[in-house]
């Protein structure tokens, strides 16, 4: 059995909450595996689990959280409203359904999963999240897959700034403009697909940096995220990989490493552009 690893440091959010900098992303994790992986993650030292209505594993995540030996206030659970439920009333109903599946009294972070500008309902969705936060049903609210102009619109029309913007972000797509925009407004940038769905790991540069630091290529990329200040939620399918992903706080990339990693930028996405919906 692997020994536990110290939990990731927690970063402050503008609303007064804090979020573990590294968590477990549960996209495409089958429901049959989710509870086991979440239990293993918590046992190893994870305190941050990221799920969504669309993932189909909220019930299993909730089961693991309720059974966890870690105090509930140490755990940070995220879920998201799916695009089909964008809109004020539909979002409120979707949140109720997610909480029923999770079996939790409160949620730490609730996100709009996609803006879907073609339907023009994301501002109303944001108003619903504001209502849920005002009612104390969710501690923090944020967005996912929002370009800066989407964020500007919801802030202009509601006066409320998201605590988090979760976007696709990896060495091919470092999202410098989004990160700068978010930082200037006190928004934490969170990276999904932090390893470009594993495809970036075949890069010879990462092999060289991994050898230099006696780490794996995945650990090099996750450490890059940490040093950029990102919140990062890599997926894992085994206890060993969970441990490897969390164990990135005991080494540091130097300036030459960071400069070399910057050369990997291509702008390539592994998912769709949020403006295309």
Automatic annotation (TrEMBL):
One of its GO terms (molecular function) is oxidoreductase activity. It comes from the Bacteria. It holds the Pfam family Aldo_ket_red. Residues 28-263 form the NADP-dependent oxidoreductase domain. Keywords: NADP, Oxidoreductase. Gene3D superfamilies: NADP-dependent oxidoreductase domain. PROSITE patterns: ALDOKETO_REDUCTASE_1. Its EC number is 1.1.1.346. Belongs to the aldo/keto reductase family. This is 2,5-diketo-D-gluconate reductase A. The lineage of its organism: Bacteria, Bacillati, Actinomycetota, Actinomycetes, Micrococcales.
